[in-house]
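Example 3.2
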Amino acid sequence: QVQLVESGGGLVQPGGSLRLSCANSGSMFGVNAMGWYRQAPGLERELVAVITTGGSINYADSVKGRFIISRDSAKNTVYLQMNGLKPEDTAVYYCNVRYSTGYNSWGLGTQVTVSS
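Structure, written as C-alpha coordinates:
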Protein backbone atom coordinates (compact mmCIF):
# COMPACT_ATOMS: atom_id res chain seq x y z
CA GLN A 1 0.00 0.00 0.00
CA VAL A 2 1.27 3.41 -0.94
CA GLN A 3 1.93 5.82 1.88
CA LEU A 4 3.08 9.32 1.09
CA VAL A 5 4.74 11.33 3.84
CA GLU A 6 5.02 15.05 3.22
CA SER A 7 7.15 17.54 5.10
CA GLY A 8 8.54 21.04 4.79
CA GLY A 9 5.53 23.30 4.95
CA GLY A 10 5.27 26.32 7.22
CA LEU A 11 5.01 30.08 7.49
CA VAL A 12 7.31 32.24 5.38
CA GLN A 13 7.47 35.90 4.45
CA PRO A 14 6.88 37.04 0.89
CA GLY A 15 9.99 36.50 -1.19
CA GLY A 16 11.12 33.65 1.01
CA SER A 17 11.75 30.00 0.21
CA LEU A 18 10.59 26.60 1.37
CA ARG A 19 11.35 23.07 0.28
CA LEU A 20 8.70 20.39 0.40
CA SER A 21 9.53 16.70 0.49
CA CYS A 22 7.37 13.68 -0.21
CA ALA A 23 8.59 10.19 0.51
CA ASN A 24 6.77 7.19 -0.93
CA SER A 25 7.04 4.28 1.46
CA GLY A 26 5.19 1.93 -0.85
CA SER A 27 6.09 0.24 -4.08
CA MET A 28 7.14 2.31 -7.04
CA PHE A 29 6.02 -0.46 -9.43
CA GLY A 30 3.77 1.03 -12.07
CA VAL A 31 4.38 4.63 -11.04
CA ASN A 32 4.62 6.91 -14.03
CA ALA A 33 4.68 10.32 -12.31
CA MET A 34 5.02 12.08 -8.97
CA GLY A 35 4.07 15.63 -8.32
CA TRP A 36 2.54 18.38 -6.24
CA TYR A 37 -0.88 19.93 -6.22
CA ARG A 38 -2.27 22.68 -4.04
CA GLN A 39 -5.62 23.84 -2.80
CA ALA A 40 -6.36 27.27 -1.43
CA PRO A 41 -9.53 27.96 0.60
CA GLY A 42 -12.58 28.14 -1.62
CA LEU A 43 -10.68 27.02 -4.70
CA GLU A 44 -10.24 23.73 -6.52
CA ARG A 45 -7.13 21.65 -6.22
CA GLU A 46 -4.68 22.56 -8.95
CA LEU A 47 -1.49 21.15 -10.40
CA VAL A 48 1.71 22.83 -9.26
CA ALA A 49 4.40 20.62 -10.77
CA VAL A 50 4.84 17.04 -11.93
CA ILE A 51 7.81 14.91 -12.92
CA THR A 52 7.45 11.66 -14.80
CA THR A 53 9.59 8.57 -14.39
CA GLY A 54 11.07 9.46 -17.75
CA GLY A 55 12.17 12.82 -16.40
CA SER A 56 9.66 15.07 -18.14
CA ILE A 57 8.59 18.04 -16.04
CA ASN A 58 5.53 20.24 -16.19
CA TYR A 59 4.82 23.38 -14.14
CA ALA A 60 1.78 25.53 -13.64
CA ASP A 61 2.27 28.87 -15.36
CA SER A 62 1.91 30.65 -12.02
CA VAL A 63 5.04 28.98 -10.58
CA LYS A 64 7.32 28.77 -13.61
CA GLY A 65 10.69 30.32 -12.88
CA ARG A 66 10.11 30.21 -9.12
CA PHE A 67 9.51 26.55 -8.22
CA ILE A 68 11.68 23.56 -9.04
CA ILE A 69 10.56 19.94 -8.82
CA SER A 70 13.12 17.18 -8.47
CA ARG A 71 13.32 13.59 -7.36
CA ASP A 72 15.65 11.14 -5.68
CA SER A 73 14.81 7.78 -7.22
CA ALA A 74 16.93 5.89 -4.71
CA LYS A 75 14.83 7.34 -1.88
CA ASN A 76 11.48 7.28 -3.73
CA THR A 77 11.22 10.95 -2.83
CA VAL A 78 10.07 13.99 -4.74
CA TYR A 79 10.93 17.54 -3.75
CA LEU A 80 9.48 20.95 -4.48
CA GLN A 81 11.85 23.88 -4.03
CA MET A 82 9.75 27.02 -3.78
CA ASN A 83 11.50 30.36 -4.20
CA GLY A 84 10.15 33.88 -4.46
CA LEU A 85 7.02 32.89 -2.57
CA LYS A 86 3.98 35.12 -2.87
CA PRO A 87 0.89 35.42 -0.68
CA GLU A 88 -1.12 33.81 -3.49
CA ASP A 89 0.99 30.67 -3.06
CA THR A 90 -0.68 30.12 0.30
CA ALA A 91 -2.43 26.76 0.19
CA VAL A 92 -2.35 23.18 1.37
CA TYR A 93 0.15 21.34 -0.81
CA TYR A 94 -0.52 17.69 -1.62
CA CYS A 95 1.88 15.11 -2.91
CA ASN A 96 0.54 12.92 -5.72
CA VAL A 97 1.66 9.62 -7.22
CA ARG A 98 0.10 8.62 -10.50
CA TYR A 99 0.11 5.04 -11.71
CA SER A 100 -0.01 3.69 -15.23
CA THR A 101 -3.40 2.15 -14.36
CA GLY A 102 -4.81 5.62 -13.82
CA TYR A 103 -4.89 5.24 -10.05
CA ASN A 104 -3.78 8.26 -8.02
CA SER A 105 -2.46 8.25 -4.48
CA TRP A 106 -2.46 11.37 -2.33
CA GLY A 107 -0.64 12.56 0.74
CA LEU A 108 -2.43 14.21 3.65
CA GLY A 109 -1.16 17.64 2.69
CA THR A 110 1.13 20.23 4.23
CA GLN A 111 0.19 23.85 4.86
CA VAL A 112 2.21 26.62 3.23
CA THR A 113 1.43 30.15 4.38
CA VAL A 114 3.09 33.18 2.84
CA SER A 115 2.49 36.28 4.92
CA SER A 116 4.31 39.21 6.43
